[in-house]
Hints:
With 332 residues, the chain is α+β, with helices and mostly antiparallel strands. The protein is 35% helix and 25% strand. The chain has helices at residues 3-14, 60-78, 97-113, 164-172, 182-191, 197-204, 219-230, 243-251, 256-261, 275-289, and strands at residues 22-24, 32-33, 40-49, 81-91, 117-125, 130-139, 155-158, 209-214, 232-236, 269-273, 294-301, 305-309, 312-315. Strands 8-10-7-11-9-12-13 form a seven-stranded mixed sheet, sandwiched between helices. A four-stranded mixed sheet has the order 3-6-4-5, with helices on one face. Strands 1-2 form a two-stranded antiparallel ribbon. Helix 2 runs parallel beside helix 6 (197-204) and helix 4 (164-172) packs across helix 5 (182-191). The radius of gyration is 20 Å and the shape is globular.
Amino acid sequence: MNETELIAALSALSESSTNRKILVGIGDDAAAWRPSRSRLSVISTDALIEGVHFTRALGNEAIGHRAMAANLSDLAAMGARPVLCTIALGVPRDELHEGVLEMYAAGARLAREYNLTIVGGDVARSPVLMLCITVVGEVRPTRMKRRAGAKPGDLIATTGALGASRAGLDVSQGRVHLRDGLQDVALRAHCFPQPRLAMGAWLAASQSVHAMTDLSDGLSTDVLHMARSSGRRAILERVPVSSSALAAASAQGMDATEYVLAAGEDYELLVAIAPRAFRYLNSRFTKRFGSGLECVGRFEAGEGGAIVGSSGEVPLKASGWDHLRRGDSAGS
């Protein structure tokens, strides 16, 4: 299969769009769409590189799904609705094109699930497998959320318990074996995460939500990102540990809290909420989504962060993912 044939096969997987905003899709030199007059366009790009973000042991479908999920999660964090995306692929010389098609198809399936239209991309030769996805979404100006915006006294919450994806990574690499169905839960969380788009849009509609981001780099790292962007100090008072993370940490003789603080790729949302509104907002959230928000701490005046332990507050260090830190790579 040559480049032209591969591109044609990838285009067929994208299917034609019924999105009226898309004026020109796949097949021309560039795509064109008509932005909404009443909404802001938001854009995000993620590059995923073999050996850095994933290994081939993950499987083609999981690689494609995770790549798309990571980008959609960025839109969720802004409260945005997906509109369109482009996918650029770097393909090694000896790569089997069947595997590339499986990977692309998995990303395209997730895109369709959230009404995201693939409008183009690129294919190039590269030393290792690489995916670079750019997504565009739309959000009302009054509803767009950013990392910045947390106020002193705001409660810090997540949209769910954390650490399942790290447990799935440990399972997939043979570091641990879990029982009672937790193994499947962990693998599903790691290989096929679900971006919290509906939750993000719902939370963004509330004026009591002052800041929001997604938990892609780990709770310790992402809460410090939000604190720094907002010019506040973050105090973590508890860490919501998923059942699979608790089991995986225990099996490896690790502290569950530290395990989750350093875990990444959960793709839950991290939210700063006005304290007086939290109880009511959480009640409505629970009715809407079937589970409640996890309150993990608060913001206060100052800078940096701390975590409350048995001996009081200790400085919070960013122990999650850092692309440029030596040693952080796929499987680390």
